[in-house]
Amino acid sequence: MTQSRTHTCGELRLANAGETVTLVGWMENIREVGNNFAFLVLRDFYGTTQVVIENEEMMNIVKPLNKESTISVTGIVRERTSKNPKLPTGDIEIAPTEITVLGRCRYNELPFEINHSREADESQRLKYRYLDLRNPEVKANIILRCNVVSALRTAMTEHGFLEITTPILTASSPEGARDYLVPARKHPGKFYALPQAPQQFKQLLMTAGFDRYFQIAPCFRDEDARGDRSPGEFYQMDMEMAFASQEDVFAVIEDVLPPIFAKYGTYNIASSAPFARIPYRQAMEEFGSDKPDLRIDLRVKDVTDILQNCGFGPFENNIVKAVPVSNCKLARKAVDKLCADVEVQAGQKPYWFKVDESGAIAGGIAKFINADEKTVEAVKSALSLEPNTLVFLSAGKREEAQKTAGVMRRMLGAACEGHMDKERYEFCWIVDFPMYEIGEESGELEFCHNPFSMPSGGMETLLKAERGEIDPLDILADQYDLVCNGVELSSGAVRNHDPEIMVKAFEMVRLGEDNVKAKFPAMYNAFCYGAPPHAGIAPGVDRMVMLLSGEESIREVIAFPMNKSAQDVMMDAPSKVTEAQLKELHIAVTEEE
């Protein structure tokens, strides 16, 4: 049966009084206030409308129904005697002449109250996600996501980009995360892989002569969940430009994103072009992070030369970083809690002292600093210390000290009044990433990030490193990250489009031309037919919407997310399959010992 409606539950106003209308939706609530008299709230996608039951016939229809049953109500619109100014439809109500049950809810008890589903246990919310999504607050995030994706598509099309879809079944590629593998039935023992990103395909499109490509691309990575990362799959606005430089990519992103953030965001202020550009090493020194939140005005200072030999054991033979916070009046209890929280997140213990109202250094490790008047003066001068300043310190190997200082800076910015302008979106570019690093496990030179990036200076730089004229660790990549409010939205790069430079770059990490051909056969061969210089980036759609909505978990902006263990508890996935299916795919499952 097809059920028609004349209006939605969010549409009717006082001007509709006297009209006969038909509404459909879910019976959100019913409140009986006497014999054959009740107030019923009807909800659909668009809003809610009050229906007043005033006779035995209508009451006999709705009284046996459980909440969340779907019904059709035909009746007359009239002005409410007790209006609700909080509702768009709060001036009117419906006096029904006909009620039809469309879909009966067969459960007396719901897993959670629909309008309070966000207060329920997350596992219950994910198991009954179709009920969770009935909550207008939850639904609003999905609507926001739709609007943002639509705005991105419109903006990219207006900038001359073509939306081209790339394959989902492809070859396994070493791109930094674990692949999801798909057995190939017609090719026993061989597997497809779900793409971690359309990286190679979009570069091949540039080689094929397409000038500007974009795609709202699904990506698949078998990695652990975080607050800003969903396990399994995620979406990104993938883009690539031929005959383009880093500046061309920056110009497009700086034109496309700020208006969307200003229009759809929780805050209506977003950075305008040009975004701040911060070299990677500077970001680590000044902010303790390669994804700094520029809304916080605090900076990390290096005080190694001053405090390394002050007599405090943890500082000896270590790098020492400081984060001074002026006009900070945190109580001792709050300082201790902050120290504990920093240690949990950073894995390193922080230290502190303060400059009291008289200008004296007190509290925390003050006695080690006060032991030498020269140290006191040097610290005050280096950190420009004034009365009522709190100073947090970290120590360790350079990366450890930087990381701990970065966590301190972020937490202090949020905890100390006047040091964080929260209600805005502040973008920046992190540039000049190292091309190589020493691998923690191998102890040898490895690619630091994306092996497809062009080394700054091209072949000449690689040859200098090969001849020993420069340290390979000093080679920079034409690579960049887009950061907003301390969240990394995307990585991008000017691509290495020259086969000779590509081979030389891989030789630096002990892989020869044969390895390059074997790992990236299509790309290597395509580049041998004349490839244009090209560059691109791929901002994450899920993270973007998470920022815009003000949510702290990425699962709140995904219609059907997996849980932290990469399980879909609603669909019971992953699940076992039959022996017949395994046999057809030439696969045997063995039990773990």
From TrEMBL:
<dbReference type="GO" id="GO:0003676">
    <property type="term" value="F:nucleic acid binding"/>
</dbReference>
<keyword id="KW-0963">Cytoplasm</keyword>
<dbReference type="InterPro" id="IPR004364">
    <property type="entry name" value="Aa-tRNA-synt_II"/>
</dbReference>
<dbReference type="InterPro" id="IPR047090">
    <property type="entry name" value="AspRS_core"/>
</dbReference>
<dbReference type="Pfam" id="PF01336">
    <property type="entry name" value="tRNA_anti-codon"/>
</dbReference>
<dbReference type="InterPro" id="IPR004365">
    <property type="entry name" value="NA-bd_OB_tRNA"/>
</dbReference>
<comment type="subunit">
    <text>Homodimer.</text>
</comment>
<feature type="binding site">
    <location>
        <position position="449"/>
    </location>
    <ligand>
        <name>L-aspartate</name>
    </ligand>
</feature>
<dbReference type="InterPro" id="IPR045864">
    <property type="entry name" value="aa-tRNA-synth_II/BPL/LPL"/>
</dbReference>
<feature type="binding site">
    <location>
        <begin position="540"/>
        <end position="543"/>
    </location>
    <ligand>
        <name>ATP</name>
    </ligand>
</feature>
<comment type="function">
    <text>Catalyzes the attachment of L-aspartate to tRNA(Asp) in a two-step reaction: L-aspartate is first activated by ATP to form Asp-AMP and then transferred to the acceptor end of tRNA(Asp).</text>
</comment>
<dbReference type="GO" id="GO:0005524">
    <property type="term" value="F:ATP binding"/>
</dbReference>
<dbReference type="Pfam" id="PF02938">
    <property type="entry name" value="GAD"/>
</dbReference>
<comment type="similarity">
    <text>Belongs to the class-II aminoacyl-tRNA synthetase family. Type 1 subfamily.</text>
</comment>
<dbReference type="GO" id="GO:0140096">
    <property type="term" value="F:catalytic activity, acting on a protein"/>
</dbReference>
<feature type="domain" description="Aminoacyl-transfer RNA synthetases class-II family profile">
    <location>
        <begin position="147"/>
        <end position="561"/>
    </location>
</feature>
<dbReference type="InterPro" id="IPR004115">
    <property type="entry name" value="GAD-like_sf"/>
</dbReference>
<dbReference type="Pfam" id="PF00152">
    <property type="entry name" value="tRNA-synt_2"/>
</dbReference>
<feature type="binding site">
    <location>
        <position position="221"/>
    </location>
    <ligand>
        <name>L-aspartate</name>
    </ligand>
</feature>
<protein>
    <recommendedName>
        <fullName>Aspartate--tRNA ligase</fullName>
        <ecNumber>6.1.1.12</ecNumber>
    </recommendedName>
</protein>
<feature type="binding site">
    <location>
        <position position="175"/>
    </location>
    <ligand>
        <name>L-aspartate</name>
    </ligand>
</feature>
<dbReference type="GO" id="GO:0004815">
    <property type="term" value="F:aspartate-tRNA ligase activity"/>
</dbReference>
<dbReference type="GO" id="GO:0005737">
    <property type="term" value="C:cytoplasm"/>
</dbReference>
<dbReference type="InterPro" id="IPR029351">
    <property type="entry name" value="GAD_dom"/>
</dbReference>
<feature type="binding site">
    <location>
        <position position="495"/>
    </location>
    <ligand>
        <name>L-aspartate</name>
    </ligand>
</feature>
<dbReference type="InterPro" id="IPR004524">
    <property type="entry name" value="Asp-tRNA-ligase_1"/>
</dbReference>
<keyword id="KW-0648">Protein biosynthesis</keyword>
<feature type="region of interest" description="Aspartate">
    <location>
        <begin position="199"/>
        <end position="202"/>
    </location>
</feature>
<keyword id="KW-0067">ATP-binding</keyword>
<dbReference type="GO" id="GO:0006422">
    <property type="term" value="P:aspartyl-tRNA aminoacylation"/>
</dbReference>
<feature type="binding site">
    <location>
        <position position="488"/>
    </location>
    <ligand>
        <name>ATP</name>
    </ligand>
</feature>
<dbReference type="InterPro" id="IPR006195">
    <property type="entry name" value="aa-tRNA-synth_II"/>
</dbReference>
<keyword id="KW-0547">Nucleotide-binding</keyword>
<dbReference type="InterPro" id="IPR012340">
    <property type="entry name" value="NA-bd_OB-fold"/>
</dbReference>
<feature type="binding site">
    <location>
        <begin position="221"/>
        <end position="223"/>
    </location>
    <ligand>
        <name>ATP</name>
    </ligand>
</feature>
<dbReference type="InterPro" id="IPR047089">
    <property type="entry name" value="Asp-tRNA-ligase_1_N"/>
</dbReference>
<keyword id="KW-0436">Ligase</keyword>
<keyword id="KW-0030">Aminoacyl-tRNA synthetase</keyword>
<dbReference type="GO" id="GO:0016740">
    <property type="term" value="F:transferase activity"/>
</dbReference>
<dbReference type="InterPro" id="IPR002312">
    <property type="entry name" value="Asp/Asn-tRNA-synth_IIb"/>
</dbReference>
